[in-house]
Amino acid sequence: MLLLIGSAAALSQAAASGEVLSSADLCVTEGHVVAAAHGNLAVDAPKMRAYTKRLAADAAELRFTYLGPTGTQQALGSGRMREQLGLKLHAADPCNLIYVMWRIQPSAELVVSVKSNPGLHSSSECTNHGYQNIEPRMRGALPRLKPGDTHRLSAEMRGRRLTVLVDGMQAWQGEPDDSAAQLRGPAGVRSDNVHFEFELASSPGQDRQVCDNRSQGTD
């Protein structure tokens, strides 16, 4: 228990020290991110995918206000309908990265998955293949989202250990395999069928100056 508390405290500190990013710091590869009140960003598109211009990040935090489902809904590549939002970590490219997703509908759950497609590097090559959910060593309860609710979703990789906090409380901890842990790339944000406002904070890292067109498309 003391180890879990210490890990959560360390992640809270890492997330708090992360720099809040502006729209200029994001490469939006699908959907739209627009300016909102109080310096926040907003999404009201059925699909949104974005990653930061930082070349590498081991920790990120999504601070968001849930505003409900989008007016227009769009199925995932698998054909499933899902309402979700979350973080990307170690996003080497759209085919190889780690997702930390807060699923809202049809069921509320926190799911961490690795998308692994060795040798493939663009969305047109891998489409929606290569996903594998990671079984956690521990899982906590999630609050039920209601329109107007504000929450924080934080994630950090330390070696192979991935820790996820919701509102500062430990919600998930597990270990992706070696190949996922060794991926290198920026953090990012993803949503499907969610209308929300947000801030994205990321651990410090070297910035790239331009967005990589190879990353355009659905991941």
Distance between the termini: 36 Å
Mean pLDDT: 87
Number of helices: 3
- The outline comes out as globular
Class by SSE composition: mainly beta
Written as H for each helix and E for each strand, in order along the chain, the element string is HEEEEEEEEEHEEEEEHEE
The CATH first-level class comes to: Mainly Beta
CATH superfamily: Exo-inulinase, domain 1
Oligomer: single chain
Question: What fraction of residues sit in β-strands?
Answer: 35-45%
Low-confidence stretches: 1-12
Q: Give the strand tally.
A: 16
Q: Could you please say which CATH topology applies here?
A: Jelly Rolls
What is this entry, summarized?
The protein is mainly beta and 219 residues long.
Please characterize this protein's 3D structure:
- With 219 residues, the chain is mainly β.
- The chain has a single domain, classed as Exo-inulinase, domain 1 (Jelly Rolls).
- Helix content is 11%, strand content 44%.
- The chain has helices spanning 2-17, 123-126, 178-181, and strands at residues 19-20, 26-30, 34-35, 41-43, 47-52, 59-69, 83-93, 96-105, 109-115, 131-133, 138-139, 150-158, 161-166, 169-174, 188-192, 194-202.
- The strands form two sheets. Strands 1, 3, 4, 6, 11, 12, 13, 14 and 16 form a nine-stranded antiparallel β-sheet that branches. It has a seven-stranded antiparallel β-sheet with strand order 2-5-15-7-8-9-10, with no helix packed on it.
- β12 and β13 form a beta hairpin.
- Mean pLDDT is 87; it is low at 1-12.
